[in-house]
Amino acid sequence: MVVSCGYLSDSGSGEKGPIVVGTTSAPSTLDPAGAWDGSWELFRNVYQTLLAYPNGATAPEPDAAQSCAFSTDHRTYTCELRQGLKFSNGDKLDAAAVKHSVDRIRAINAQTGPAGLLGSLDKVETRGEREVVFRLNKPDATFPFVLATPALSLVPAVSYPDNSLRKDSRIIGSGPYRLDAYDQGGEAVLVRNPSYKGLAKRKNDAVTIRYFQDSATMVKALRDGRIDITYQGLAADDVVALENKTDDNKGLELHEGAGSAINYLVFNPKDPAANNVAVRKAVAQTVDRAAIAHKVYQDTVEPLYSMVPQGLTGHTTPYFDVFGEPDVGKARKILAEADVSTPVPLTLWYTTDRYGSDTGLEFKEIKAQLDASGLFTVTLKSRPWNAYVLGYQKGEYPVFGRGWQPDFPDPDNFIAPFVGQQNALGTPYDARKITDVLLPRSRQQSDRADVVKDFQEAQRLLVDDVRLLPLWQGKQYLAADEDIAGGERSLDPATIMMVWELSRKTSW
Protein backbone atom coordinates (compact mmCIF):
# COMPACT_ATOMS: atom_id res chain seq x y z
CA MET A 1 0.00 0.00 0.00
CA VAL A 2 1.19 3.47 -0.83
CA VAL A 3 0.56 5.82 2.08
CA SER A 4 0.75 9.55 1.62
CA CYS A 5 2.59 11.91 3.92
CA GLY A 6 1.59 15.41 4.85
CA TYR A 7 -0.55 17.27 7.31
CA LEU A 8 -4.31 17.30 7.31
CA SER A 9 -6.49 20.35 7.51
CA ASP A 10 -8.64 20.58 10.64
CA SER A 11 -11.63 21.89 8.74
CA GLY A 12 -10.86 20.17 5.46
CA SER A 13 -12.54 22.99 3.58
CA GLY A 14 -9.67 23.31 1.07
CA GLU A 15 -9.28 25.98 -1.56
CA LYS A 16 -10.25 23.84 -4.55
CA GLY A 17 -13.88 23.31 -3.63
CA PRO A 18 -15.59 20.02 -2.79
CA ILE A 19 -13.61 16.79 -2.94
CA VAL A 20 -14.95 14.82 -5.91
CA VAL A 21 -15.22 11.03 -5.62
CA GLY A 22 -15.70 8.83 -8.67
CA THR A 23 -17.46 5.46 -8.60
CA THR A 24 -19.16 3.08 -11.04
CA SER A 25 -21.74 2.10 -8.41
CA ALA A 26 -24.77 4.40 -8.59
CA PRO A 27 -27.69 4.04 -6.12
CA SER A 28 -30.73 2.05 -7.22
CA THR A 29 -32.96 4.03 -4.84
CA LEU A 30 -32.64 6.79 -2.25
CA ASP A 31 -35.03 5.14 0.23
CA PRO A 32 -33.30 2.82 2.75
CA ALA A 33 -36.36 0.55 2.91
CA GLY A 34 -35.88 -0.31 -0.77
CA ALA A 35 -32.16 -1.07 -0.96
CA TRP A 36 -30.04 -4.08 -0.07
CA ASP A 37 -27.25 -3.18 -2.47
CA GLY A 38 -24.56 -0.65 -3.32
CA SER A 39 -26.95 2.23 -2.60
CA TRP A 40 -25.59 1.94 0.94
CA GLU A 41 -22.43 3.69 -0.23
CA LEU A 42 -24.39 6.94 -0.41
CA PHE A 43 -26.62 6.15 2.58
CA ARG A 44 -23.69 5.79 5.00
CA ASN A 45 -22.79 9.43 4.46
CA VAL A 46 -26.20 11.12 4.50
CA TYR A 47 -28.26 8.94 6.81
CA GLN A 48 -27.42 7.95 10.37
CA THR A 49 -27.72 4.61 12.14
CA LEU A 50 -27.95 3.80 15.84
CA LEU A 51 -24.51 2.23 15.68
CA ALA A 52 -21.66 2.57 13.18
CA TYR A 53 -17.96 1.85 12.75
CA PRO A 54 -15.38 4.41 13.78
CA ASN A 55 -12.15 4.37 11.82
CA GLY A 56 -10.31 1.06 12.22
CA ALA A 57 -13.06 -0.68 14.21
CA THR A 58 -14.47 -4.12 13.36
CA ALA A 59 -17.25 -3.99 15.93
CA PRO A 60 -20.01 -1.35 15.88
CA GLU A 61 -20.13 1.49 18.38
CA PRO A 62 -22.92 3.97 19.24
CA ASP A 63 -23.59 6.71 16.67
CA ALA A 64 -27.11 8.13 16.91
CA ALA A 65 -27.29 6.09 20.09
CA GLN A 66 -25.49 7.21 23.23
CA SER A 67 -25.34 3.64 24.51
CA CYS A 68 -26.72 0.17 23.68
CA ALA A 69 -26.71 -3.12 25.55
CA PHE A 70 -28.04 -6.69 25.37
CA SER A 71 -30.01 -8.48 28.05
CA THR A 72 -28.26 -11.55 29.44
CA ASP A 73 -30.23 -13.92 27.18
CA HIS A 74 -29.46 -11.92 23.99
CA ARG A 75 -33.19 -11.52 23.28
CA THR A 76 -33.58 -7.85 24.20
CA TYR A 77 -31.39 -5.05 22.89
CA THR A 78 -31.88 -1.57 24.33
CA CYS A 79 -30.48 1.71 23.01
CA GLU A 80 -30.57 5.20 24.50
CA LEU A 81 -30.35 8.02 21.97
CA ARG A 82 -28.07 11.03 22.14
CA GLN A 83 -29.75 14.21 23.34
CA GLY A 84 -30.94 16.82 20.87
CA LEU A 85 -30.81 14.78 17.65
CA LYS A 86 -32.47 16.33 14.59
CA PHE A 87 -33.00 15.41 10.96
CA SER A 88 -31.68 17.71 8.26
CA ASN A 89 -35.15 19.25 7.82
CA GLY A 90 -35.34 20.17 11.51
CA ASP A 91 -37.65 17.32 12.61
CA LYS A 92 -36.85 15.71 15.95
CA LEU A 93 -35.01 12.39 15.86
CA ASP A 94 -36.47 10.55 18.82
CA ALA A 95 -37.34 7.00 19.79
CA ALA A 96 -40.57 7.16 17.80
CA ALA A 97 -38.60 8.00 14.65
CA VAL A 98 -36.32 5.02 15.22
CA LYS A 99 -39.30 2.71 15.64
CA HIS A 100 -40.89 4.11 12.48
CA SER A 101 -37.66 3.65 10.51
CA VAL A 102 -37.41 -0.02 11.45
CA ASP A 103 -41.10 -0.89 11.26
CA ARG A 104 -41.55 0.49 7.75
CA ILE A 105 -38.80 -1.77 6.36
CA ARG A 106 -40.87 -4.81 7.29
CA ALA A 107 -44.22 -3.21 6.44
CA ILE A 108 -43.07 -2.28 2.92
CA ASN A 109 -41.12 -5.55 2.51
CA ALA A 110 -39.72 -4.38 -0.83
CA GLN A 111 -38.41 -7.08 -3.14
CA THR A 112 -35.09 -5.28 -3.34
CA GLY A 113 -35.19 -4.16 0.30
CA PRO A 114 -33.39 -5.31 3.45
CA ALA A 115 -36.29 -6.89 5.37
CA GLY A 116 -34.40 -10.19 5.29
CA LEU A 117 -31.84 -8.73 7.72
CA LEU A 118 -34.55 -8.42 10.39
CA GLY A 119 -35.50 -12.08 10.69
CA SER A 120 -34.66 -12.19 14.40
CA LEU A 121 -36.65 -9.05 15.28
CA ASP A 122 -40.04 -9.51 16.94
CA LYS A 123 -41.02 -5.92 17.70
CA VAL A 124 -39.73 -2.46 18.52
CA GLU A 125 -40.85 -0.57 21.62
CA THR A 126 -40.17 2.92 22.93
CA ARG A 127 -39.73 4.21 26.46
CA GLY A 128 -40.07 7.96 26.51
CA GLU A 129 -38.36 10.03 23.83
CA ARG A 130 -34.86 8.56 23.99
CA GLU A 131 -35.07 4.84 24.74
CA VAL A 132 -35.68 2.15 22.10
CA VAL A 133 -36.15 -1.53 22.94
CA PHE A 134 -35.74 -4.27 20.34
CA ARG A 135 -37.48 -7.52 21.30
CA LEU A 136 -35.98 -10.47 19.44
CA ASN A 137 -37.76 -13.75 18.68
CA LYS A 138 -34.52 -15.66 19.35
CA PRO A 139 -31.06 -14.88 20.68
CA ASP A 140 -29.01 -12.99 18.10
CA ALA A 141 -25.55 -11.72 18.98
CA THR A 142 -25.25 -10.27 15.45
CA PHE A 143 -28.18 -7.86 15.89
CA PRO A 144 -25.93 -4.86 16.72
CA PHE A 145 -24.12 -5.47 13.41
CA VAL A 146 -27.48 -5.31 11.62
CA LEU A 147 -28.35 -2.02 13.32
CA ALA A 148 -25.04 -0.62 12.09
CA THR A 149 -25.82 -1.31 8.42
CA PRO A 150 -27.17 1.52 6.25
CA ALA A 151 -30.30 -0.67 5.85
CA LEU A 152 -31.32 0.60 9.28
CA SER A 153 -30.87 4.27 8.35
CA LEU A 154 -33.05 6.58 10.41
CA VAL A 155 -35.76 8.61 8.65
CA PRO A 156 -38.51 11.01 9.80
CA ALA A 157 -42.08 9.68 9.83
CA VAL A 158 -43.63 12.72 8.15
CA SER A 159 -41.44 12.43 5.07
CA TYR A 160 -41.12 8.64 4.75
CA PRO A 161 -44.52 6.87 4.55
CA ASP A 162 -45.30 3.80 6.63
CA ASN A 163 -46.24 1.55 3.72
CA SER A 164 -44.58 2.86 0.57
CA LEU A 165 -41.20 3.93 -0.74
CA ARG A 166 -40.33 7.50 -1.59
CA LYS A 167 -39.92 7.98 -5.32
CA ASP A 168 -38.32 11.43 -5.45
CA SER A 169 -34.66 12.45 -5.48
CA ARG A 170 -34.52 13.89 -1.97
CA ILE A 171 -33.00 12.52 1.21
CA ILE A 172 -33.87 13.65 4.72
CA GLY A 173 -31.44 12.15 7.16
CA SER A 174 -29.31 12.98 10.18
CA GLY A 175 -25.92 11.84 8.89
CA PRO A 176 -22.65 13.77 8.56
CA TYR A 177 -23.81 15.31 5.27
CA ARG A 178 -27.06 16.37 3.69
CA LEU A 179 -27.88 15.76 0.04
CA ASP A 180 -27.84 19.19 -1.57
CA ALA A 181 -28.50 18.03 -5.15
CA TYR A 182 -28.92 14.73 -6.95
CA ASP A 183 -28.80 13.74 -10.60
CA GLN A 184 -29.63 10.04 -10.98
CA GLY A 185 -26.71 8.30 -12.64
CA GLY A 186 -24.86 11.63 -12.69
CA GLU A 187 -23.80 12.89 -9.30
CA ALA A 188 -24.73 13.42 -5.66
CA VAL A 189 -23.72 16.72 -4.10
CA LEU A 190 -23.10 16.45 -0.35
CA VAL A 191 -22.58 19.33 2.05
CA ARG A 192 -21.83 19.30 5.76
CA ASN A 193 -24.92 18.76 7.92
CA PRO A 194 -24.69 21.41 10.68
CA SER A 195 -27.09 19.55 12.99
CA TYR A 196 -25.23 16.22 12.90
CA LYS A 197 -24.32 14.62 16.23
CA GLY A 198 -22.40 11.37 15.96
CA LEU A 199 -19.04 9.64 15.86
CA ALA A 200 -17.86 10.90 12.44
CA LYS A 201 -15.06 13.47 12.61
CA ARG A 202 -15.46 15.30 9.32
CA LYS A 203 -12.26 16.41 7.63
CA ASN A 204 -14.01 18.31 4.84
CA ASP A 205 -17.06 20.50 4.32
CA ALA A 206 -18.38 19.11 1.06
CA VAL A 207 -18.04 16.07 -1.20
CA THR A 208 -19.47 15.40 -4.64
CA ILE A 209 -19.89 11.76 -5.68
CA ARG A 210 -19.81 11.37 -9.45
CA TYR A 211 -21.17 8.21 -11.13
CA PHE A 212 -19.49 6.63 -14.16
CA GLN A 213 -20.56 3.85 -16.52
CA ASP A 214 -17.11 2.27 -16.69
CA SER A 215 -13.65 2.31 -15.20
CA ALA A 216 -11.86 3.78 -18.22
CA THR A 217 -14.04 6.89 -18.23
CA MET A 218 -13.59 7.28 -14.49
CA VAL A 219 -9.79 6.97 -14.65
CA LYS A 220 -9.64 9.48 -17.50
CA ALA A 221 -11.60 11.90 -15.31
CA LEU A 222 -9.07 11.33 -12.52
CA ARG A 223 -6.11 11.98 -14.81
CA ASP A 224 -7.82 15.09 -16.21
CA GLY A 225 -8.40 16.44 -12.71
CA ARG A 226 -12.20 16.29 -12.94
CA ILE A 227 -12.36 13.96 -9.92
CA ASP A 228 -9.98 13.66 -6.96
CA ILE A 229 -10.31 10.00 -6.00
CA THR A 230 -11.89 6.80 -7.31
CA TYR A 231 -13.84 4.39 -5.18
CA GLN A 232 -15.74 1.39 -6.57
CA GLY A 233 -15.22 -0.07 -10.02
CA LEU A 234 -11.57 0.14 -11.01
CA ALA A 235 -11.02 -2.42 -13.77
CA ALA A 236 -8.01 -4.71 -13.63
CA ASP A 237 -6.39 -3.06 -16.68
CA ASP A 238 -6.65 0.32 -15.01
CA VAL A 239 -5.27 -0.95 -11.70
CA VAL A 240 -2.25 -2.40 -13.50
CA ALA A 241 -1.80 0.80 -15.53
CA LEU A 242 -2.02 2.98 -12.42
CA GLU A 243 0.71 0.93 -10.73
CA ASN A 244 3.18 2.15 -13.35
CA LYS A 245 4.95 5.45 -12.74
CA THR A 246 4.30 6.94 -16.19
CA ASP A 247 3.60 10.51 -17.23
CA ASP A 248 -0.10 9.62 -17.44
CA ASN A 249 -0.06 8.81 -13.73
CA LYS A 250 2.00 11.75 -12.57
CA GLY A 251 0.56 13.16 -9.36
CA LEU A 252 -1.59 10.06 -8.72
CA GLU A 253 -1.34 7.41 -6.01
CA LEU A 254 -2.78 3.90 -5.90
CA HIS A 255 -3.80 2.40 -2.56
CA GLU A 256 -4.21 -1.38 -2.22
CA GLY A 257 -5.75 -3.22 0.71
CA ALA A 258 -7.36 -6.51 1.64
CA GLY A 259 -10.99 -6.88 0.71
CA SER A 260 -13.90 -9.08 1.69
CA ALA A 261 -16.18 -8.54 -1.31
CA ILE A 262 -16.94 -11.75 -3.20
CA ASN A 263 -18.38 -12.73 -6.60
CA TYR A 264 -20.31 -15.91 -7.20
CA LEU A 265 -22.80 -17.73 -9.43
CA VAL A 266 -26.37 -18.53 -8.38
CA PHE A 267 -28.27 -21.55 -9.74
CA ASN A 268 -32.04 -21.11 -9.97
CA PRO A 269 -33.98 -24.24 -8.95
CA LYS A 270 -36.88 -23.16 -11.19
CA ASP A 271 -34.75 -23.95 -14.23
CA PRO A 272 -34.73 -27.66 -15.23
CA ALA A 273 -30.98 -27.78 -15.93
CA ALA A 274 -29.87 -25.59 -13.02
CA ASN A 275 -32.09 -27.55 -10.63
CA ASN A 276 -30.11 -30.74 -11.34
CA VAL A 277 -27.41 -31.12 -8.70
CA ALA A 278 -25.27 -33.13 -11.14
CA VAL A 279 -25.26 -30.19 -13.55
CA ARG A 280 -24.29 -27.81 -10.78
CA LYS A 281 -21.50 -30.10 -9.59
CA ALA A 282 -20.22 -30.51 -13.15
CA VAL A 283 -20.04 -26.72 -13.55
CA ALA A 284 -18.20 -26.50 -10.21
CA GLN A 285 -15.79 -29.19 -11.41
CA THR A 286 -15.12 -27.38 -14.69
CA VAL A 287 -14.82 -23.67 -13.81
CA ASP A 288 -11.21 -22.52 -13.48
CA ARG A 289 -11.11 -19.75 -10.87
CA ALA A 290 -7.37 -19.23 -11.15
CA ALA A 291 -7.73 -18.54 -14.88
CA ILE A 292 -10.48 -16.00 -14.21
CA ALA A 293 -8.35 -14.25 -11.58
CA HIS A 294 -5.26 -14.17 -13.80
CA LYS A 295 -6.59 -13.73 -17.34
CA VAL A 296 -9.51 -11.41 -16.65
CA TYR A 297 -8.55 -9.62 -13.45
CA GLN A 298 -4.75 -9.77 -13.83
CA ASP A 299 -4.38 -11.07 -10.27
CA THR A 300 -6.18 -8.11 -8.73
CA VAL A 301 -8.58 -10.69 -7.20
CA GLU A 302 -8.01 -14.04 -5.50
CA PRO A 303 -9.70 -17.38 -6.35
CA LEU A 304 -12.35 -18.18 -3.74
CA TYR A 305 -13.41 -21.68 -2.62
CA SER A 306 -16.03 -20.79 -0.01
CA MET A 307 -18.83 -18.29 0.44
CA VAL A 308 -16.98 -17.10 3.56
CA PRO A 309 -13.91 -15.15 2.37
CA GLN A 310 -10.38 -15.34 3.66
CA GLY A 311 -9.74 -13.22 6.71
CA LEU A 312 -13.05 -13.97 8.44
CA THR A 313 -13.60 -16.28 11.38
CA GLY A 314 -14.15 -19.88 10.30
CA HIS A 315 -13.07 -19.54 6.65
CA THR A 316 -12.41 -22.91 4.98
CA THR A 317 -11.98 -24.08 1.36
CA PRO A 318 -14.73 -26.70 0.89
CA TYR A 319 -15.10 -26.25 -2.88
CA PHE A 320 -11.41 -27.00 -3.37
CA ASP A 321 -11.52 -29.84 -0.85
CA VAL A 322 -14.39 -31.50 -2.76
CA PHE A 323 -13.63 -30.64 -6.40
CA GLY A 324 -9.92 -29.87 -6.39
CA GLU A 325 -8.42 -28.48 -9.58
CA PRO A 326 -10.66 -28.09 -12.68
CA ASP A 327 -11.08 -31.50 -14.32
CA VAL A 328 -13.29 -32.05 -17.38
CA GLY A 329 -12.98 -35.82 -17.05
CA LYS A 330 -14.41 -35.76 -13.53
CA ALA A 331 -17.17 -33.40 -14.66
CA ARG A 332 -18.08 -35.75 -17.53
CA LYS A 333 -18.28 -38.65 -15.08
CA ILE A 334 -20.59 -36.68 -12.75
CA LEU A 335 -23.02 -36.04 -15.63
CA ALA A 336 -22.79 -39.60 -16.99
CA GLU A 337 -23.56 -41.16 -13.61
CA ALA A 338 -26.66 -38.97 -13.36
CA ASP A 339 -27.75 -39.87 -16.94
CA VAL A 340 -27.52 -36.24 -18.04
CA SER A 341 -27.25 -35.80 -21.82
CA THR A 342 -24.51 -33.50 -23.05
CA PRO A 343 -23.95 -30.83 -24.05
CA VAL A 344 -26.18 -29.24 -21.40
CA PRO A 345 -27.69 -25.90 -22.52
CA LEU A 346 -27.23 -23.16 -19.92
CA THR A 347 -28.07 -19.45 -20.01
CA LEU A 348 -25.84 -17.26 -17.82
CA TRP A 349 -26.89 -13.73 -16.92
CA TYR A 350 -24.77 -10.85 -15.64
CA THR A 351 -25.23 -7.15 -14.98
CA THR A 352 -23.43 -4.58 -17.10
CA ASP A 353 -22.97 -1.77 -14.58
CA ARG A 354 -22.66 -2.93 -10.99
CA TYR A 355 -19.56 -5.01 -10.29
CA GLY A 356 -17.00 -3.29 -12.46
CA SER A 357 -16.09 -3.04 -16.10
CA ASP A 358 -14.53 -6.52 -16.23
CA THR A 359 -17.76 -8.39 -15.51
CA GLY A 360 -18.53 -8.96 -19.19
CA LEU A 361 -15.02 -10.32 -19.77
CA GLU A 362 -15.40 -12.58 -16.76
CA PHE A 363 -18.57 -14.16 -18.10
CA LYS A 364 -17.04 -14.57 -21.55
CA GLU A 365 -14.21 -16.49 -19.87
CA ILE A 366 -16.67 -18.69 -17.94
CA LYS A 367 -18.57 -19.37 -21.18
CA ALA A 368 -15.32 -20.24 -22.97
CA GLN A 369 -14.32 -22.66 -20.22
CA LEU A 370 -17.69 -24.43 -20.12
CA ASP A 371 -18.07 -24.55 -23.92
CA ALA A 372 -14.51 -25.88 -24.35
CA SER A 373 -15.32 -28.81 -22.05
CA GLY A 374 -17.85 -30.10 -24.60
CA LEU A 375 -20.24 -30.67 -21.71
CA PHE A 376 -22.16 -27.39 -21.97
CA THR A 377 -23.42 -24.90 -24.52
CA VAL A 378 -23.63 -21.52 -22.85
CA THR A 379 -25.65 -18.48 -23.87
CA LEU A 380 -24.75 -15.16 -22.27
CA LYS A 381 -27.29 -12.43 -21.55
CA SER A 382 -27.02 -9.17 -19.62
CA ARG A 383 -28.96 -6.17 -18.33
CA PRO A 384 -28.24 -2.90 -16.52
CA TRP A 385 -28.46 -3.25 -12.74
CA ASN A 386 -31.90 -1.74 -12.11
CA ALA A 387 -33.53 -4.12 -14.61
CA TYR A 388 -31.24 -6.98 -13.61
CA VAL A 389 -32.35 -6.85 -9.97
CA LEU A 390 -36.01 -7.12 -10.91
CA GLY A 391 -35.22 -10.07 -13.15
CA TYR A 392 -33.50 -12.22 -10.55
CA GLN A 393 -36.04 -11.26 -7.90
CA LYS A 394 -38.71 -12.68 -10.23
CA GLY A 395 -36.69 -15.84 -10.81
CA GLU A 396 -36.15 -15.18 -14.52
CA TYR A 397 -32.50 -16.26 -14.77
CA PRO A 398 -31.36 -19.93 -14.87
CA VAL A 399 -27.81 -19.07 -13.73
CA PHE A 400 -26.73 -15.56 -12.80
CA GLY A 401 -23.80 -13.67 -11.37
CA ARG A 402 -23.87 -11.73 -8.14
CA GLY A 403 -21.40 -9.84 -6.04
CA TRP A 404 -21.59 -9.38 -2.30
CA GLN A 405 -20.22 -6.50 -0.31
CA PRO A 406 -20.62 -7.56 3.33
CA ASP A 407 -23.26 -5.91 5.45
CA PHE A 408 -20.98 -6.47 8.42
CA PRO A 409 -17.64 -8.26 9.03
CA ASP A 410 -18.87 -11.60 10.42
CA PRO A 411 -19.17 -15.05 8.76
CA ASP A 412 -22.89 -14.98 9.53
CA ASN A 413 -23.25 -12.31 6.85
CA PHE A 414 -21.81 -14.59 4.17
CA ILE A 415 -24.19 -17.45 4.97
CA ALA A 416 -27.50 -16.12 6.35
CA PRO A 417 -28.38 -13.70 3.49
CA PHE A 418 -28.36 -16.53 0.93
CA VAL A 419 -30.49 -19.19 2.63
CA GLY A 420 -34.12 -19.44 3.71
CA GLN A 421 -37.35 -18.48 2.02
CA GLN A 422 -36.60 -14.75 1.96
CA ASN A 423 -33.03 -14.02 0.99
CA ALA A 424 -30.84 -11.64 -1.00
CA LEU A 425 -30.98 -13.85 -4.09
CA GLY A 426 -34.71 -13.76 -4.82
CA THR A 427 -34.70 -17.58 -5.08
CA PRO A 428 -35.76 -19.46 -1.93
CA TYR A 429 -33.08 -21.81 -0.62
CA ASP A 430 -34.34 -24.45 1.80
CA ALA A 431 -31.31 -25.23 3.98
CA ARG A 432 -32.91 -26.28 7.26
CA LYS A 433 -29.78 -27.42 9.08
CA ILE A 434 -28.25 -24.01 8.48
CA THR A 435 -31.32 -21.85 9.12
CA ASP A 436 -32.81 -23.85 11.99
CA VAL A 437 -29.73 -25.14 13.83
CA LEU A 438 -26.36 -23.67 12.91
CA LEU A 439 -27.26 -19.98 12.57
CA PRO A 440 -29.47 -19.84 15.69
CA ARG A 441 -26.81 -21.63 17.74
CA SER A 442 -24.02 -19.38 16.51
CA ARG A 443 -26.05 -16.28 17.28
CA GLN A 444 -26.06 -17.13 20.96
CA GLN A 445 -22.30 -16.55 21.09
CA SER A 446 -21.14 -13.02 21.82
CA ASP A 447 -17.55 -14.17 21.39
CA ARG A 448 -17.44 -14.81 17.66
CA ALA A 449 -14.37 -17.01 18.05
CA ASP A 450 -16.76 -19.62 19.47
CA VAL A 451 -18.73 -20.01 16.21
CA VAL A 452 -15.98 -21.58 14.08
CA LYS A 453 -17.31 -25.15 14.07
CA ASP A 454 -20.86 -24.09 13.17
CA PHE A 455 -19.69 -22.02 10.21
CA GLN A 456 -17.32 -24.70 9.02
CA GLU A 457 -20.28 -27.08 8.88
CA ALA A 458 -22.45 -24.48 7.12
CA GLN A 459 -19.80 -24.07 4.43
CA ARG A 460 -19.66 -27.84 3.94
CA LEU A 461 -23.45 -28.02 3.56
CA LEU A 462 -23.40 -25.28 0.92
CA VAL A 463 -20.87 -27.19 -1.16
CA ASP A 464 -23.04 -30.33 -0.94
CA ASP A 465 -25.86 -28.45 -2.71
CA VAL A 466 -23.78 -26.24 -5.02
CA ARG A 467 -26.69 -23.81 -5.29
CA LEU A 468 -24.02 -21.11 -4.96
CA LEU A 469 -20.63 -21.23 -6.65
CA PRO A 470 -18.02 -18.80 -5.22
CA LEU A 471 -15.60 -17.49 -7.85
CA TRP A 472 -13.30 -14.85 -6.42
CA GLN A 473 -12.55 -12.51 -3.55
CA GLY A 474 -11.66 -8.93 -4.32
CA LYS A 475 -8.99 -6.60 -3.09
CA GLN A 476 -9.60 -2.92 -2.42
CA TYR A 477 -8.10 -0.34 -4.73
CA LEU A 478 -8.37 3.43 -4.49
CA ALA A 479 -6.67 5.79 -6.92
CA ALA A 480 -6.31 9.38 -5.84
CA ASP A 481 -4.68 12.68 -6.61
CA GLU A 482 -1.59 13.03 -4.42
CA ASP A 483 -3.19 16.10 -2.85
CA ILE A 484 -5.91 13.91 -1.26
CA ALA A 485 -5.36 12.36 2.16
CA GLY A 486 -7.47 9.84 4.03
CA GLY A 487 -8.25 7.37 1.25
CA GLU A 488 -6.74 4.44 3.11
CA ARG A 489 -8.81 5.30 6.21
CA SER A 490 -12.07 5.90 4.41
CA LEU A 491 -13.33 2.31 4.09
CA ASP A 492 -15.41 0.78 6.86
CA PRO A 493 -15.47 -3.01 7.48
CA ALA A 494 -18.23 -3.37 4.88
CA THR A 495 -15.98 -1.58 2.32
CA ILE A 496 -18.30 1.43 2.21
CA MET A 497 -16.52 4.75 1.77
CA MET A 498 -16.77 7.13 4.69
CA VAL A 499 -16.19 10.31 2.74
CA TRP A 500 -15.76 12.38 5.89
CA GLU A 501 -12.25 10.90 6.21
CA LEU A 502 -11.09 12.58 2.99
CA SER A 503 -9.22 15.88 3.02
CA ARG A 504 -6.77 17.96 1.04
CA LYS A 505 -3.19 18.22 2.22
CA THR A 506 -2.14 21.66 3.31
CA SER A 507 1.66 21.22 3.45
CA TRP A 508 4.39 18.71 2.69
Question: Care to describe what's here?
Answer:
Helices cover 25% and strands 23% of the residues. The chain contains 13 helices and 20 strands. A 6-stranded mixed β-sheet has the order 14-18-13-17-15-16. It has a 5-stranded mixed β-sheet with strand order 9-10-11-2-12, with helices on both faces. Helix 6 runs antiparallel to helix 9, helix 7 packs across helix 10 and helix 12 runs antiparallel to helix 13. The longest helix has 14 residues.
Q: Which descriptors would you attach to this protein?
A:
13 helices, single chain, six-stranded mixed β-sheet, about 25% helix, alpha+beta, globular
Give a brief outline of the structure.
This protein has 508 residues and is of the alpha+beta class. 25% of the residues lie in helices and 23% in strands.
- Strand proportion, as a percent range, falls in 15-25%
Distance between the termini: 19 Å
List unreliable stretches of 5+ residues. 1-14
Total of DSSP H or I helical runs spanning 4+ residues: 13
Main β-sheet description: 6 strands, mixed
Give me the count of strands.
20
Strand order of the largest sheet: 14-18-13-17-15-16
Proportion of helical residues? 10-25%
Alpha-beta classification: alpha+beta
Rg computed from alpha carbons, rounded to a whole number of angstroms? 23 Å
Shape: globular
